[in-house]
Write a structure and sequence with these properties.
- The protein is an alpha/beta fold and 227 residues long.
- It has 2 domains: 131 residues, Response regulator (Rossmann fold), CATH 3.40.50.2300; 47 residues, no CATH class.
- The protein is globular and about 65 Å long.
- The two termini are 44 Å apart.
Length: 227
């Protein structure tokens, strides 16, 4: 692919592999995209940095965007009592990403990094990006379709889109999950739809499993699925 491949090794530390490739710019097809974007109309996007150039593009995507210059203002918004649920974040550097993840209210909100064309290139660790919830990384010279597709992946990840199958009345839900991180994600999503969530204790989970297994064997079912 007309690039270069090399490796650097350090004694007692391991080896690092590097490569470069040349890619042609591909135009993203517009067909079918308006229908995908329509379900996210009005979703709230918080942009932290000098993103005035993106304001018009975000409006074209029918998103409710708030642009602020600093992480301090983001902290103030997140800590306010009447703070809205933020569906996606836009930042300009990985440094800001690390700062955001220190804020408990924005701990699980998907992030899109949009760097300035004049900013120095950052070395990205893909594993860390995935762990930090960074969905896309590109520069501000991208067109509205690039921005749309980058934000679409973040919006789809944050929470499932409401549809006709979602009950119109709030439910009382007993959540049987022992992983703390999964608990927080599930509670945030369920409460967003107006449901009341109670975390089951370990002994409660065991009792629920026993009841389900008893019901399962009594009725002679062939399959039982736990989620």
């Amino acid at each position: 692919m007309h690039g270069e491949l090399w490796v650097q090794s350090k004694y007692n530390e391991g080896a690092s592999f590097y490569f470069t490739i040349k890619l042609a710019r591909q135009m993203i097809p517009f067909i079918g995209f308006p229908q995908k974007q329509a379900v996210f109309t009005g979703r709230k996007v918080l942009a932290i940095g000098h993103f005035e150039c993106l304001k018009e593009k975000l409006q074209d995507l029918t998103l409710s965007a708030t642009i602020i210059p600093s992480i301090q203002e983001a902290e103030g918004i997140a800590n306010s009592n009447d703070s809205p649920v933020i569906d996606a974040l836009i930042v300009d550097t990985m440094t800001t990403v690390y700062q955001i993840r220190k804020l408990s209210q924005l701990l699980y909100t998907p992030i899109v990094v949009i760097a300035s064309p004049d900013a120095p290139l950052e070395t990205l660790n893909m594993k860390k990006c995935l762990d930090l919830g960074v969905m896309s990384y590109f520069n501000t010279s991208a067109d509205v379709m690039d921005l749309a597709h980058a934000l679409l992946s973040a919006l789809e990840l944050h929470a499932r889109v409401p549809n006709d199958l979602v009950p119109s009345r709030p439910l009382k839900i007993l959540l049987a999950e022992d992983n703390v991180v999964n608990q927080k994600i599930a509670i945030r999503i369920l409460e967003k739809f107006g449901h009341k969530v109670h975390i089951a204790e370990v002994k409660t989970i065991i009792i629920v499993v026993i009841i389900l297994l008893s019901f399962f064997f009594f009725h002679g079912w062939n399959y039982l699925c736990f989620i």
